[in-house]
Design goal:
The chain is α/β, with parallel strands linked by helices. The protein has helices spanning 9-13, 17-38, 43-46, 49-58, 75-83, 118-132, 150-159, 183-193, 219-229; strands spanning 65-69, 138-143, 166-172, 209-213, 236-241.
Length: 247
């Protein structure tokens, strides 16, 4: 199995295209097997497999900051950062946390990231890295369900005029716990229907750069999208359309 050879994200970077696809399939089987034993968040992680693999192909989370919102999307991230063998203890007392935890790994930047606070946290991290002149990136992975939280709009507003290496990934699967409803979600639907090219664009209205990825469960398409924004020195939103619970 390819997954058994992955001891750190550095191993992901050296995989061939074919082996990268095989890894995604193995990760799905791994998630189903492990979560069926311990309980936990299955559908949200199944939909974020390719996203997480692509992030680790392009970014270096030992130095770049990765913030999840909601944090329970982080299971694949944990499996790829040296914690795969701990999944038998997932969400057990004294075991592997179901959320990011900096005490567990240097690859976890923020304790939770839940329901709207990720962009605020990521903005703070990106400001710190800019002042240090480190050249490091901060990546916030935000589920569309978090966009009902007012804090996220304050953070987006504060991102709009900054020169920061900040990547905001909107993981848009059209779902929260249940189907999304409301005016903002109608705007996201219009953006999906236009493949990100329509006049209605929530993020450009905030002064942010923007990219749209229709096939958010295509690992190669995601890698290309992240490679395109790697090197940009201003905040950019990468809006990806995924399927919750894929597989």
């Amino acid at each position: 199995m390819i997954l058994e050879t992955i001891q750190s994200p550095a191993d992901v970077k050296h995989l061939s295209d074919a082996d990268t696809e095989r890894l995604c399939g193995e990760l799905r089987r791994f998630l189903v097997e492990q979560v069926s034993r311990t309980g936990g968040h299955l559908a949200s992680n199944l939909g974020a497999v390719e996203l997480t693999v692509a992030i680790h192909r392009v970014f270096d989370t030992a130095s770049d900051r990765l913030v999840f919102d909601v944090g329970h999307q982080c299971y694949v991230h944990k499996a790829l950062t040296g914690r795969r063998e701990l999944f038998g203890t997932l969400r057990q007392f004294g075991g592997l946390s179901g959320f990011p935890n900096p005490a567990e790994s240097a690859h976890d930047a923020f304790v939770a990231g839940h329901s709207g606070n990720s962009v605020s946290a990521a903005l703070g991290f990106a400001e710190e890295e800019a002042r240090r002149g480190s050249g490091r990136y901060t990546v916030a992975v935000v589920g569309d369900g978090s966009f009902t939280n007012g804090m996220i709009y304050e953070a987006l507003n504060n991102c709009g005029n900054k020169n920061l290496r900040l990547i905001i990934v909107l993981n848009d699967n059209e779902m929260s716990i249940a189907e999304n409803h409301g005016g903002m979600y109608a705007t996201l639907a219009a953006m999906r229907e236009s493949h990100g090219r329509g006049e209605r664009n929530l993020f450009r209205d905030f002064g942010l750069d923007y990219r749209y990825v229709e096939h958010g469960n295509d690992v190669h398409e995601l890698i290309r999208a992240f490679e395109e924004v790697h090197g940009i020195d201003h905040p950019v939103v990468v809006h990806i359309h995924t399927t919750k619970g894929l597989g």
